[in-house]
Automatic annotation (TrEMBL):
GO terms for molecular function: nucleotide binding. It comes from Oligosphaera ethanolica. SUPFAM superfamilies: Glyceraldehyde-3-phosphate dehydrogenase-like, C-terminal domain, NAD(P)-binding Rossmann-fold domains. PANTHER family: D-GLUCOSIDE 3-DEHYDROGENASE, UDP-N-ACETYL-2-AMINO-2-DEOXY-D-GLUCURONATE OXIDASE. This is Dehydrogenase. Residues 132-268 form the GFO/IDH/MocA-like oxidoreductase domain. InterPro entries: Gfo/Idh/MocA-like_OxRdtase_N, Gfo/Idh/MocA_Oxidoreductase, GFO_IDH_MocA-like_dom, NAD(P)-bd_dom_sf. Residues 4-122 form the Gfo/Idh/MocA-like oxidoreductase N-terminal domain. Gene3D superfamilies: Dihydrodipicolinate Reductase, domain 2, NAD(P)-binding Rossmann-like Domain.
Length: 372
């Protein structure tokens, strides 16, 4: 069995959710970590059981002859680092968001095709037990024709979240606020459940409002004004007439459980945190909750992130071993979730309805992942 040599780029809060699952792979070994703060890189290297720490990712890739890198960096660095890593011969798995512009995301997919290297993007909530239950019930017609959907994300981001950062709160580096950072997983999940396909061709238009209501007149550590949205609401309309609405904000008193509700002709479906519940009008009810046996020790981090990072990373390495395209790949996300998020921002920032154009065909996912 080939052992992929793995490096972690970026050693902040999210890095254990990549490094620890990568460490657990039978066909991979984490050999090095990289961060501009060498102390952070050394700390994570110790956690992941590797000896090497770097401050330059290109040096790390070259010296360690890496096969795979995980990108856990600020949003604006996802694209340039991913592109360069693929040019240097590495497969890439990056945290969300894929990028902060359409051009950046397109550059990533182009680099993947040119280099022949795999590009994956983390959207782990699709693997949750509740998500899988709802997807199955919707696809097999148990809910009948879908009428509408909605989702809510009400979390807490204190002033220090922005004022203590050198990149948060700016369009140029974060790429947005509550939508792209806090609500992106939930909006992605809602639209995936509605079946927006492999290429997003059934997206019709979006009408969005955004505002900064509770983080005004703040500046981050670079002196940049915090000017991204801390709340947003909107309507996403599909070509089959289904209307999906969302509301998100990050000035609640704590990170409350996310909610997704879907109404169909024959019943209702709801996700609360990771739990899924389908209630049919004929009296039947189906429930899926997280399996306690699937708890994974990431070495710290919010408990509500669950075990699904591990499931997606397992699939990613399985696809690499078999020479397949992972289910959640860069081209898929470019043409669906990323295009949609960029459209939401175009609508909100310009206060106009945005129509979605037809995308380029995306690669089909590997056969092993069609069950998702």
């Amino acid at each position: 069995m080939k052992k992929f040599k793995v490096g972690i780029i970026g050693c902040g809060r999210i890095s254990p959710f990549h490094g620890m699952p990568a460490k657990s792979q039978e066909n991979a070994t984490v050999v090095a970590c990289c961060d501009l703060d060498i102390a952070k890189a050394k700390d994570r290297a110790k956690l992941f059981g590797c000896k090497q720490a770097y401050t330059n990712f290109e040096e790390m890739i070259t010296k360690e002859k890496l096969d795979v890198v995980h990108i856990c960096l600020p949003h604006y660095l996802h694209s340039p680092v991913a592109v360069r890593a693929m040019e240097l011969g590495c497969h890439v798995l990056t945290e969300k968001p894929m990028a902060i512009s359409m051009q950046q995301a397109e550059d990533m997919v182009a680099a993947s095709k040119k280099s022949g290297k795999t590009l994956g993007v983390i959207f782990q909530n699709r693997y949750n037990a509740g998500s899988q239950l709802l997807k199955k019930c919707i696809e097999n017609g148990m809910l009948g024709k879908i009428r509408a959907a909605k989702c809510n994300v009400t979390w807490c981001r204190t002033p220090e979240y922005y004022t203590g950062s050198d990149w948060k709160g700016t369009w140029e580096m974060e790429g947005g606020g509550a939508i792209i950072d806090q609500a992106i997983h939930t909006i992605d999940l809602m639209c995936w459940l509605l079946g927006y396909g492999d290429n997003g061709s059934n997206l019709d238009y979006a009408d969005v409002s955004i505002a900064n209501r509770d983080h005004q007149n703040m500046r981050n550590t670079t002196g940049a004004l915090v000017d991204v949205e801390d709340c947003a609401d909107g309507l996403i309309v599909f070509k089959d007439g289904v209307r999906a609405s969302f509301w998100c904000m990050n000035y609640f008193s704590f990170d409350d459980q996310v909610e997704i509700s879907i109404n169909g002709e024959l019943g209702n479906a709801k996700i609360t945190a990771e739990e899924g519940r389908v209630t049919l009008y004929d009296g039947r009810e189906f429930v899926a909750k997280p399996d306690p046996s699937e708890i994974f020790d990431y070495g710290g981090g919010p408990s509500y992130w669950g075990a699904s990072h591990t499931k997606q990373i397992d699939d990613f390495y399985g696809a690499l071993e078999n020479g397949e395209t992972p289910w959640i790949n860069g081209e898929l996300i470019l043409n669906t979730t990323h295009k949609m998020i960029m459209g939401l921002y175009e609508s909100g920032r310009n206060q106009k309805v945005v129509k979605f154009c037809a995308p380029q065909p995306a690669k089909k996912a590997a056969a092993r992942s069609k069950k998702k």
